[in-house]
From TrEMBL:
<keyword id="KW-0456">Lyase</keyword>
<dbReference type="InterPro" id="IPR051151">
    <property type="entry name" value="Group_II_Decarboxylase"/>
</dbReference>
<dbReference type="GO" id="GO:0016831">
    <property type="term" value="F:carboxy-lyase activity"/>
</dbReference>
<dbReference type="InterPro" id="IPR015424">
    <property type="entry name" value="PyrdxlP-dep_Trfase"/>
</dbReference>
<dbReference type="Pfam" id="PF00282">
    <property type="entry name" value="Pyridoxal_deC"/>
</dbReference>
<dbReference type="InterPro" id="IPR015422">
    <property type="entry name" value="PyrdxlP-dep_Trfase_small"/>
</dbReference>
<feature type="modified residue" description="N6-(pyridoxal phosphate)lysine">
    <location>
        <position position="279"/>
    </location>
</feature>
<protein>
    <submittedName>
        <fullName>Serine decarboxylase</fullName>
    </submittedName>
</protein>
<keyword id="KW-0210">Decarboxylase</keyword>
<dbReference type="InterPro" id="IPR021115">
    <property type="entry name" value="Pyridoxal-P_BS"/>
</dbReference>
<dbReference type="InterPro" id="IPR002129">
    <property type="entry name" value="PyrdxlP-dep_de-COase"/>
</dbReference>
<dbReference type="InterPro" id="IPR015421">
    <property type="entry name" value="PyrdxlP-dep_Trfase_major"/>
</dbReference>
<keyword id="KW-0663">Pyridoxal phosphate</keyword>
<comment type="similarity">
    <text>Belongs to the group II decarboxylase family.</text>
</comment>
């Protein structure tokens, strides 16, 4: 260790600020906090504090490298190099207010932001003059915005979302005090339109606001947008009586590059689409993109004299660095680059699913997805090491561009080795038939 000074709390070598060992919902756990200490009066002479801080950061970096190596469960592409943007860190870049209206604050990145938005507008097929959008802080803000737009258009609308929707959708419902109908899902994780029909018919007198999942968080399932629209029409909801927000946090940016996949496009009667920027694209900070129709935004915006702008975003001050990162990656990779990466993800996801099955492990992979669902590993330590996201008896790996065959092989080897120990006593691996169906569950009862 660089410095050992009893003035400071020394971190153990295995210190990992990302892990809390205790699970506590009802109180804050401080066991892993890094104390902020006041500078010493004579600090300028000794330089001790500076050296201490440098050592903390160096060790933190080491931890990040290690944790990046063993990450599989979250849909984040950890493979990027934004070195070229390092020079911009010294600026307080802030895209205050509306992307399309200059404010008086000049240190902004609006031209990059609008460039990125135009790219997404092309991807989702809406004319430049017909759309409005902005770069958000992530998929959650996109959902909060999309559902708010729907709510502002239909103040008495009922929100419909499948029960496998991201929790931010239900957060929006609570924030806006909306009546929310949770719709059942099929085994695949996609919305059950038979149940949707029943619920729509039960609320026929109220306009409908729908959240449609373009890739659910846990199973990567894509709601059948065309069937949802057909169901709305059949239930007597004309296009001016519903609003559809498409939550494409992860998959909204993968699906357009898959041949024969269903299409998300503003040529269909949808109101908005959102995507996360730090998921498939990869970005050091959370961010996202929200696109809606210009006509809707008029409902939402008030003119705010103070900022000489239009107030149609959720946040006021907005991260001006994020558009630079997105612009950089979109420019570097382009449609072709993304297409290749999506293909690789799909190939590797199928590889993982097939190897799991061969090893006798229940696993499911939705046709066009790269999210592999399988039995939850028995040991929480194992789950933590590989940073797997778990829900009930299932876990998943989201195959992103940084997840190579080599990494998957390491994971598979580790899992198979551990499993032979976990079940050496003759105990059985969990049955996950209720989550993945009979043809995907190969537990002893369903082999
Ligand atoms: C991740 C995710 C979100 C939330 O996105 P953030 O960028 O984490 O805010 C919303 N919906 C789905 C389906 C997601 O997977």
């Amino acid at each position: 260790m660089a410095i050992l000074n009893d003035k400071f709390e020394i971190l153990p070598d295995e210190f990992d600020p990302t892990v809390t060992n205790e699970m506590a919902i009802d109180r804050n756990v401080h066991t892993t906090s890094l104390t902020v200490t006041e500078p010493e009066v004579n600090e300028e002479f000794t330089g001790d504090k500076e050296a201490y801080m440098a050592s903390v950061l160096a060790r933190y970096q080491k931890t990040l490298v290690e944790r990046t190596k063993y990450h599989l469960g979250y849909p984040f592409n950890l493979d990027f190099d934004y070195g070229a943007l390092g020079q911009l860190q010294q600026f307080s870049i802030n895209n205050y207010g509306d992307p399309f209206i200059e404010s008086n604050y000049g240190v902004h990145s609006r031209p990059f932001e609008v460039g990125v938005l135009d790219w997404f507008a092309r991807l989702w097929e809406i004319e430049r003059n017909d759309y409005w959008g902005y770069i958000t802080n992530g998929g959650t803000e996109g959902n909060l915005h999309g559902i708010l737009v729907g709510r502002e258009i239909f103040t008495d609308g009922v929100l419909y979302a499948s029960c496998e929707s991201h929790y931010s959708v239900f957060k929006a419902a609570r924030m806006y005090r909306m009546v929310c109908e949770k719709v059942n899902t099929l085994i695949s994780g996609e919305i059950d339109c038979v149940d949707l029909r029943q619920k729509l018919l039960a609320n026929k007198d109220k306009p409908a606001i729908l959240n449609v999942n373009i890739g659910t968080t846990v199973k990567g399932a894509v709601d059948d947008l065309d069937f949802v629209i057909k169901t709305l029409h059949e239930c007597g909801f004309s296009n001016d009586r519903f609003y559809i927000h498409c939550d494409g946090a992860l998959f909204g940016l993968m699906m357009p590059f898959i041949k024969h996949a269903p299409k998300v496009t503003f040529n269909k009667p949808i109101g908005s689409v959102s995507v996360s920027g730090h998921k498939f694209v990869g970005c050091p900070m959370p961010c996202g993109v929200q696109i809606t129709r210009m006509e809707h935004i008029k409902v939402l915006s008030n003119n705010i004299e103070y900022q000489a702008s239009r107030d149609a975003t959720i946040m006021g001050n907005r991260n001006g660095h994020a558009p630079l990162f997105l612009w950089y990656t979109l420019s570097k990779k382009g449609y072709k680059g993304f297409q290749k990466e999506v293909q690789d993800c799909q190939i590797n996801a199928h590889y993982l699913k097939d190897r799991l099955r061969e090893a006798g492990i229940s696993a499911m992979l939705n046709e066009i997805s790269s999210t592999v669902v399988f039995e939850r590993p028995k040991d929480e330590e194992f789950v933590r090491r590989w940073q797997l996201a778990c829900e009930g008896a299932i876990a998943h790996v989201v195959v992103m561009p940084n997840v190579t065959i080599e990494k998957l092989n390491n994971f598979l080897k580790d899992l198979v080795e551990h499993r032979s120990v976990w079940y050496a006593d003759g105990s059985q691996p969990p049955c996950i038939v209720t989550s993945v169906g009979t043809h995907n569950c190969i537990c002893p009862a369903h082999k």
